[in-house]
Amino acid sequence: MARARFLNTLSGRFLMLTTVFVMLAEVLIFVPSVSRFREDYLRLRLERAQIASLALLASDDMISEDLERELLENAGVFNVVLRRDEMRQLVLSSPIPSPVDASYDLREPTRLSLIRGAFADLTDSRNRVIRVIGQPVRQAGLLIEVTIESGPMRREMIEYGLRILSFSAVISVLTAILLFLAVQRLLVAPIRRVVAHMSSYAEAPEDARRVIEPTARVVELREAEDALQSLQTQLTGALRQKERLAQLGGAVAKISHDLRNILTTAQLFADRMEISEDPAVKRAAPKLVNSIARAVNLCESTLTFGRAEEPPPRLARFMLAGLVTEVLEGERPAAEAGEIEFVTDVAPNLTIRADSEQLHRVLLNLVRNARQAIEATKKAGTVEVGAGEDDGFWWIRVGDTGPGLPERAKAHLFQPFQGGTRKGGTGLGLAISAELVRGHGGRLELVRSDEEGTEFMIRLPKTVTHAEAAA
């Protein structure tokens, strides 16, 4: 079990690959080495046979049979044929124990023929008689030919091959050990360090002290550590922000609960004001009642939002022009010195299907942001609300002539506490508005924002299934 686990590790896999590659290298070295050894062995026999033939030549062919046999035994051959010219041959010979089994020509051998011959001699265990043809050294003739036994040559080839394999095995073991240690130090140890940091960070991701400090010298590992550090830093910041938001949400929920009770009492007094005979009170009472009702509804929605859910929209058909007029009338008293003009471009008979209360909140947020953006410039400006429809959508456009949104607000436009469009803003208005529009199956998007002003577009689908699925 432990062995199988080790082989599945990076070190074990690398050790296996190293062993396989080294063994492959040994094979690639062993075959040419043995073939070269065989070639040298045969050429040495040719040289010795040439020397023996020259001894016969020097004695003018007058040597005894015992001396001839001794020369052949020292050369390790059965007979020698030395052709010095076309007319004359010098021959040393002795009895051949068996017919010649194969012939090898070493005058212009190819590497493939040498390897093939060495492989044939190694695999054939018979003691054969072979003929070897070669070129005499120092241009001492045209051709030299000898016959020898293959058995002694095969034994020496095997001994040489075993020495090569033993030496290669020692080198392979040392190489594998050195590579294993190098991998352990350069790769495995840094990877284990990264894994240890990840495990430690997972135990307490909010603890900034557990964020990894990159120390690797290998480029790829250093890049991995840098990426992990960036990820951990961002995650820690996000967790802290979510914790603060959770605490803030709890506080807002408590405040909204108490505020709802207060507004409920105020609503009772507002209901009594409706029976007053004072004309001014009669005109103001309905607006006051509607404002208090919306405030109570907002507190209830806030309590729902604190439970991480927004109520689904209650879809119904209504005239959009009346809702837009109500939103703009609610903002006109807040405009400074009448320098802001509110313009509507909504057909009186345009009917849409939506949740009027939620859409009121969305338009109120957009119009109020537009008004506040113009007021920040201390100049006159215009807030315009237009609407229309096409085959698939109703659309509502809210634009202003303000200074445009800052770049940071554009980057985090619909993110709570990050997409604030003015100094001191929280960004909750746009975030909640976008969520409410998504609940209708639509989308809230920024059409443009530059020095000439800002324009938002609300698109609500006419297909009911889209809205219900999104809700």
In short:
With 471 residues, the protein is α+β, with helices and mostly antiparallel strands. The chain is built from twelve helices and twelve strands.
Give your account of this protein's structure.
The chain has 471 residues and is an alpha+beta fold. The protein has 3 domains: 2-177, no CATH class; 207-309, Helix Hairpins, CATH 1.10.287; 313-470, 2-Layer Sandwich (Heat Shock Protein 90), CATH 3.30.565.10. Helix content is 58%, strand content 16%. It has 12 helices and 12 strands. The protein has helices spanning 2-7, 10-58, 65-75, 111-123, 150-203, 219-273, 279-306, 320-331, 356-376, 407-411, 428-439, 464-470, and strands at 79-83, 89-92, 100-105, 129-134, 143-149, 316-319, 340-345, 351-354, 381-389, 393-400, 443-450, 453-461. Strands 2-1-5-4-3 form a 5-stranded mixed beta sheet. It has a 5-stranded mixed beta sheet with strand order 7-9-10-12-11. β9 and β10 form a beta hairpin. α2 (10-58) runs antiparallel to α3 and α9 runs antiparallel to α11 (428-439). The radius of gyration is 49 Å and the shape is rod-shaped. Residues 221-248 form a coiled coil.
